[in-house]
Fold:
Amino acid sequence: MNLAMKISDHDVLLVIDVQNDFCTGGALAVPGGEKVVPAVNRIAQKFANVVLTQDWHPEDHVSFAPNHPGKQPFQTIELDYGIQVLWPTHCVKGTAGAEFHRDLDIARANLVVRKGFRRGIDSYSALFENDKRTPTGLLGYLRERELKTVFVTGLALDFCVRFSAEDARKAGFEVAVIEDACRGIDLGGTVAATHQSFRDLGISVVGLEAFL
Ligand code: VGL
Ligand code: ZN
Structure:
């Protein structure tokens, strides 16, 4: 039986934050982060529409633990938009850590969305920043391009992939997360919470084989 999925011109592959700082040796390394690269490259060949996101922070960003004296990475603080995890300094705009992994086939992308560039707001989702209101512009792009189904890959499964998939689903798109083209951080159960949320919202979780 041929399981190959038929990709249409209304489908888009969203590749989240496949950047050096989220790969082995990076400032906020996701275990096995670089392992998504060959999978993403293979899948991307099947899509006419590929969008990359790039985490892109100023050095004084509110999400960086060193900007909060006495705080350690992975502790949380309360901001006006809610609880914020404090991260090691990562993906500072213009640095090598913020560059895409060198083997990522970035030539396949027709759009790169940078996010997290406002000092006072973090942005996990590719659609809305962490205040849930400030748009990145991607929603308008998806609608204007008449894209209907969003396939999500990349890093990290339980943060930026999760919030991007959730926001796309809530905005009315069909959403599928290609799990073996993602890796998670898993901070105290966040991967399990991600799977539960995907079930609750009707976000499909699919395997790589369907695309090969
Ligand atoms: C991410 C934490 C902080 C991600 C980005 O790409 O999942 N996580 N910034
Ligand atoms: Zn970040």
